[in-house]
């Protein structure tokens, strides 16, 4: 107790010193805060201004383009843009199918691996993780050649993997390949953190292995992948690299505004309408925020049930 | 990638796991026929995981003609790897080597910068009480819901104004201030750097900066290495960002260069296919080596479930 009192006294006597110490401590954050303000906050603030303006060329299209205040015009146009919503629908459908499917497959795999000796499972680990270590662009390149009718080992099947009906399957298959090993490992990790007593208790109560899997292990994993799934869906909704690469092979199927992110890229850097591209970015961000909140609430409900 | 960055205290959790693994066989083991079923499945999965990479290894030994005519999963007659490497590194006066070097040093500088800046900030947020701390934490949390796509276009406008467009710094600076990493470092520092130790150092006369550079920094090696690794891989693999911000192709990174080749397909002298394939293979070697060597850091993502 006397130690506590002493501390209080010291604290009082050294108030200026403590303040100085805190100030010095805060200097560690200054570089971060400065960079954060410039590279994260400033662009967002800027986007809120840019979206209210439009570039307009004078009568003959000569001379400097002038910025004209247009109010909410860009945003209204973005909200009514069917191309955007069609693109969003595509990625949303893809995300809603692919992300849970990948998680489900990984979960089954993790349950299976959990049922063999850890040493045995460990032997397969590096092999299963190689796809995850492969850079995304490289794995896209590999699969493009594996799908391509000229170099594919599957060319005897005569399947056109870039066909408009199949292209999502082709991309999804690629995503599964790249992520399965890693996701499985995450699930496996969460399986191993289930307290052993719970499983033992269930077994003593006469629960079968299947029952244990469904009533203990699966709920445990589901609750622990909430965030993985959430991030997965949000990330997939911003899909850009894979369709962009596929477009260089199959421009007829993958249009320039195939996904919202591609449409924004095209609008900003090919068409050159920065203001409208900003409106689309803001719209996409707003939709993603709403989607995250909905998903979060929904998963909270699932977890409680 | 985001899943891997979620964990904060990987080492401890990892140890627990290892001890659980090395203990006598887990009670979950299946026996008999179903054991072989599971093993068979694991083998199949491994084949699925490795086969495309096997295709790549086989493909780099082929020539522009045999790549189209022979079975993709086995070697063709001639061994053309050295010729391919020679072509790759001499095409357009060795532009590939330039891209590779750009990627190496940019990734290195970016991840070193990000590591120092975010670890220092996270440390201060965990260990000091100062005015504005709550505001900074609030901004960090709020930034988590902002999708990356939102930043691209306005960043383009901003960087054009300040001369960052087509400038090396555009690859380095924006990646150095990732709020998620600062948050990670903060959570880790809370558990890893004891107040008593800092107090003792103060009594011995060490200043705040010296405490950080000589004591606290060493206790935060794990999050620092994790942040370094994830940034290195992230910036090595980044594609959209350099495509938007780097115009001069001498400044490009290797991923962007490969995309430009695949989009072009052929030029007047060459079918670029073999260059893309060989280039893709070379570009993945450093990352794979680094990731295997630093497994314990990124696999900490594995414990994400246990941290909930």
Please explain how this structure is put together.
The complex is a heterodimer of chains A (305) and B (308). Chain A is globular. Mean pLDDT of chain A is 84; it is low at 1-5. Chain A folds into two domains: 2-50, no CATH class; 76-304, MetI-like (MetI-like fold, Orthogonal Bundle), CATH 1.10.3720. The longest helix of chain A has 33 residues, at 82-114. Chain A is built from 14 helices and two strands; from the N terminus they run αααββααααααααααα. Chain A has a two-stranded antiparallel sheet with strand order 1-2. With 305 residues, chain A is an all-alpha fold. Chain B has 308 residues and is mainly α. Chain B has a domain at 95-264: MetI-like (MetI-like fold, Orthogonal Bundle). In chain B, 68% of the residues lie in helices and 0% in strands. The radius of gyration of chain B is 24 Å and the shape is globular. The two termini of chain B are 18 Å apart. Residues 1-27 and 301-308 of chain B have low confidence and may be disordered. Classes of the chains: A mainly alpha (305), B mainly alpha (308). Chains A and B meet through helix 2, helix 3, helix 5, helix 6 and helix 7 of A and helix 1, helix 2, helix 5, helix 6 and helix 7 of B.
Task: Detail the topology: elements first, then pairings.
The complex is a heterodimer of chains A (about 300) and B (about 300).
Chain A: H1 2-13, H2 15-27, H3 30-50, E1 53-56, E2 66-69, H4 73-79, H5 82-114, H6 118-133, H7 136-147, H8 167-192, H9 196-204, H10 209-224, H11 226-237, H12 241-249, H13 260-271, H14 274-304
Antiparallel strand pairs in A: 1-2
Helix pairs in contact in A: 4-14, 5-8, 5-11, 6-8, 7-12, 11-14, 13-14
Chain B: H1 10-22, H2 33-59, H3 66-69, H4 81-90, H5 95-127, H6 133-143, H7 148-161, H8 169-172, H9 179-192, H10 195-203, H11 208-219, H12 221-237, H13 240-245, H14 254-264, H15 273-293, H16 295-298
């Amino acid at each position: 107790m006397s130690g506590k009192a002493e501390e209080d006294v010291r604290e009082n006597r050294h108030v200026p010193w403590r303040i100085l110490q805190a100030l010095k401590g805060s200097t560690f954050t200054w570089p971060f805060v400065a960079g954060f303000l410039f590279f994260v906050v400033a662009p967002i603030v800027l986007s809120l201004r840019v979206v209210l303006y439009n570039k307009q060329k004078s009568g003959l299209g000569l001379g400097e383009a002038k910025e004209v205040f247009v109010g909410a015009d860009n945003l209204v146009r973005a909200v009514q843009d069917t191309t955007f919503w069609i693109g969003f629908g595509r990625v949303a459908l893809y995300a809603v199918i692919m992300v849970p499917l990948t998680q489900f497959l990984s979960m089954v795999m993790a349950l299976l691996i959990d049922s063999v000796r850890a040493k045995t499972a460990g032997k397969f680990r590096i092999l299963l993780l190689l796809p995850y270590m492969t850079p995304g662009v490289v794995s896209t390149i590999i699969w493009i050649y594996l799908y391509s009718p000229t170099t594919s080992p599957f060319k005897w099947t005569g399947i056109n993997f870039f066909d408009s009906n199949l292209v999502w399957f082709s991309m999804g298959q690629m995503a599964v390949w790249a992520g399965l090993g890693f996701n499985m490992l995450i699930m496996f990790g969460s399986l191993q953190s289930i307290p052993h007593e719970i499983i033992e208790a269930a077994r003593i109560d006469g629960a079968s292995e299947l029952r244990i899997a469904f009533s203990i292990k699966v709920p445990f994993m589901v609750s622990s992948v909430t965030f993985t799934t959430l991030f997965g869906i949000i990330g997939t909704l911003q899909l850009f690299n894979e369709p962009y690469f596929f477009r260089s092979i199959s421009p007829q199927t993958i249009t320039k505004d195939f996904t919202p992110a591609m449409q924004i890229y095209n609008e900003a850097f090919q068409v050159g309408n920065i203001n409208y591209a900003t409106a689309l970015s803001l719209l996409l961000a707003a939709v993603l925020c709403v989607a995250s909140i909905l998903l979060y609430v929904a998963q909270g409900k699932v977890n409680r049930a | 990638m985001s899943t891997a960055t979620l964990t904060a205290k990987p080492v401890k959790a990892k140890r627990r796991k290892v001890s659980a693994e090395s203990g006598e066989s887990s009670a979950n083991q299946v026996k008999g026929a179903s054991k072989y079923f599971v093993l068979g499945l694991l083998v199949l999965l491994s084949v699925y995981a490795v086969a495309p990479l096997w295709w790549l290894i086989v493909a780099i030994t082929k020539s522009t003609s045999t790549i189209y005519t022979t079975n993709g999963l086995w070697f063709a007659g001639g061994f053309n790897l050295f010729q391919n490497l020679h072509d790759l590194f001499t095409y357009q006066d060795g532009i590939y080597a330039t891209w590779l070097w750009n990627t190496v040093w940019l990734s290195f500088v970016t991840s070193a910068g990000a590591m120092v800046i975010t670890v220092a900030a996270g440390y201060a947020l965990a260990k000091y009480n100062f005015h504005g701390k709550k505001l900074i934490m609030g901004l960090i949390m709020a930034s988590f819901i902002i999708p990356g796509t939102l930043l691209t276009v306005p960043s383009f406008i901003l960087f054009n104004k300040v001369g960052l467009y087509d400038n090396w710094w555009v690859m380095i600076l924006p990646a150095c201030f990732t709020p998620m990493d600062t948050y990670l470092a903060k959570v880790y520092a809370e558990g890893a750097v004891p107040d008593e130790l800092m107090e003792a150092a103060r009594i011995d006369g060490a200043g705040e900066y010296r405490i950080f550079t000589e004591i606290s920094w060493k206790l935060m090696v794990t999050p620092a290495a994790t942040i370094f690794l994830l940034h290195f891989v992230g910036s090595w693999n980044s594609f959209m960002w350099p495509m938007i911000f780097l115009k001069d192709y001498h400044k490009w990174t290797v991923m962007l260069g490969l995309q430009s080749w695949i989009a072009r397909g052929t030029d007047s002298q060459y079918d670029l296919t073999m260059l893309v394939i060989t280039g893709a293979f070379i570009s993945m070697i450093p990352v794979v080596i680094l990731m295997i060597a630093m497994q314990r850091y990124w696999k900490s993502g594995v414990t994400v479930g246990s941290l909930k």
